[in-house]
Each structure stands twice: as C-alpha cells, then as structure tokens.
Amino acid sequence: MAxxxxxxxxxxxxxxxxxxxxxxxxxxxxxxxxxxEAVNAGASIIHLHVRDKAQKPSQDKEIFKEVTKxxxxxxxxxxxxxxxxxxxxxxxxxxGPLSLKPEMATLSMGSLNFGxxxxxxxxxIIQAINKEIIVNGVMPELEIFDYGMMDTVDRxxxxxxxxxKFHVDFVLGVLGGMNGEIKSLxxxxxxxxxxxxxxxxxxxxYQLPLTAHAIAMGGHIRxxxxxxxxxxxxxxxxxxxxxxxxxxxxxxxxDRPVASVKEAREILKLT
Length: 271
Hints:
Blueprint: E1 7-10, H1 28-41, E2 45-48, E3 50-51, E4 57-58, H2 61-72, E5 78-81, H3 91-95, E6 104-108, E7 112-114, E8 117-119, H4 123-135, E9 139-144, H5 148-158, E10 167-172, H6 182-189, E11 198-202, H7 207-217, E12 220-223, E13 230-232, E14 235-236, H8 240-253, H9 261-267
Parallel strand pairs: 1-2, 1-12, 2-5, 5-6, 6-9, 9-10, 10-11, 11-12
Antiparallel strand pairs: 3-4, 7-8, 13-14
Helix pairs in contact: 1-2, 1-8
C-alpha cells in the first residue's frame, strides 16, 4: 500500500527571470509568501533557491537564513535547500548554507548538459557536498537527471558513502538529461531498492502527465516555478500554490491522501 502523497514545491529556480515570468518571487518576503501559500495549499516540502539584491542566483547563507526564518515564523514545513546553486557556482559556495542544518538538501548525482551550459557534478563535487550533508546531519535528496546516475547511486551505496537515510527525486525533461516520458520514469523506479520513497519533478510539458502517473505508482510529486511556469499550454500559472492545488485535486480523484507536514516527516523518517 502506497504511503500518503508528499508534495514538494520548488518555488524558485536559478534560471528563470522576471522577463519570462513577471510575478517571479525573488525577494525574501516574496519567496516566503509564495512558500507559505504553497504549504497552505498542501505542500509539505519547500525546495529552496534564493536570489541576492540584484535578483541573481545566490548561495549566500545569510539569505537562506532570512528566508527560512520568514517561512518558519508563519508555518511549519520541511525546508530543503538546493546545493545546486546556479551553473558554475563553486562547490564551497554550494555547500555554504548546509551549516544552517536544514532538514533536507539536494545532492545531484552526476554532471549533465543543462541547455547550452554544463551542470558540473564530478566525483569530487558530489563527495564534497555529501560530506557537508553528513557533517551537518541533513537528509539528502538524491537528484537523478539521467539513467546512468542510478549507477552512481548503486556504487556509492556499495561503498557506504551515502547516509543511511535519503530520498530520491527524478528530475525529468531537462535538455541534456533524460526525457519525461512515462517509460523513462518506470525504467528509473525499477532501479530503486524495495521500500525506497521517491518523487518526480517533470520539467515543462512533462509536469502534468508525470504527476498523474507518479501518484498512481505510489511516488511523490515536486511542482513549482523552478520546473514549469505554464499551468496549461499558453497559459502562465498564477503562482506556485496553483500547481500544488492541482496535485491535491488529482490525488483526491485517485484516492491517494495527501500527507500533512507531520506525516511527511514520518514517511521520510525525519523524526
């Protein structure tokens, strides 16, 4: 029997600008408000990137601290820091916010072409971030963009490099990574250990079909402006909460109850 559905919301990514999406939340106040709206709509996890005063992607620990405080002052949720930063961010900066000891943080399991750029995650980078995750007692969410990254996961598990507890998120549809077709998702989930909780983030047009299939398959869901700005073809979404609300409706129709924040912590063994 599948566990209750955990909904993650990636309220902001590193690439999007207000030129493409004028209502993009970028200030600490805007980010926290968008996160709170998503939690009120049904999200349990907030996947967090931040921006500096020039609206540029940042791994500044103090900005992460400020946004986290603003969110926590108004609601309870699991806050998951991105260690990806933006393409080209030095690994030391990517690790910086981990000293704040968030409940979760991402750990990308390999390099890939990211459009016309390279999202670099060499063995040294993966292990450096993983070390800081362990030192700070953070649960990693292993980000899988391509099939070969599952081989890296298996290799690290055999060598006892990864923490005992982790979550897996399949990010599908990135240009340069694995596409978001359903067969891609089933290929990847077949590689998981029995009982491993997982989620999927479908990029752009893949978000909605992957959401429906993952719910039916017993997986969890990530939605949000980092992954997609269109509610349907040609129609910009109103905000992050609108995506979460749709997931809640689909889950209800598929008889898959949505997890509360407390239940999400229990499912992920964060408590």
